[in-house]
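Re: that chain you flagged

S.,

Sorry for the slow reply, it's been a week of failed gels. I finally had a moment to sit down with the sequence you sent. For the record, here it is as I used it:
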Amino acid sequence: MHPAKYHRELVRLAAEKGVRFMAGCRVESVRGEGPFRLLTSRGEVLANEVVMATNGYTSAVTPQLQRRVIPIGSYMIATEEIEPELLNRLLPTDKIISDSRKVVYYYRKALDGQRILFGGRVSGSETDPAVSGPLLQRELVNLLPELEGIAISHSWSGLVAYTFDELPHIGKQQGMHYAMGYCGAGVGMASYLGNKLGKQLVGDPDGKTAFSIPSFQTRPGYRGKPWFLPAAVQYYRLRDRLNI
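Prediction finished late last night. Pasting the structure tokens below so you have them in one place:
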């Protein structure tokens, strides 16, 4: 599926039901535990219910949630158009390919059937897509040497959120509802938990889910900045090289 088109259609359907969207309106603080007083970049808002659906972008506005998710950059590239015979020989199906390493790479034929989308992590700490793009291109050529000389047309990145128990979480903390920590499966899992959370807000018993886990783990000293990530990436890369 195309995530941007999916998001656009969700917005359209919600707007048809009367939902109001306020873009460019950053929440700067949340006070109270219901009713809530939210200070935003465009003024103050009063709300009986607040939902935090910030995942990899959870900030110090909610420090109790920020220290429970680990933001990790996910990096992607798209190649320029590839000659159809070569592309179909390299990727004869439309299935997604993912390897078995700990520092994993994932790729597939683009929906237009003319290029390859390739993603993974190529640095210990977060970097700029201008830096990650050529590094991903090198890894793609290592996997598919026939692509030597094929340039990339796009390079981008975004933050996903992992949790310490590697499970998504939905629940309520300090009166606020939350759903986050999708561990790289956010398109499907966020849709599922968003549906469940919406039902919980209106008292629908079908809002129950196994991901309403009472314990939302963190670690001593962790405040939302994954200082340990470069060492962890290097450790798992070593395991990949040793095949353990």
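What I noticed first: Residues 71-162 form a domain with the Alpha-Beta Plaits fold (CATH 3.30.70).

Talk soon,
D.
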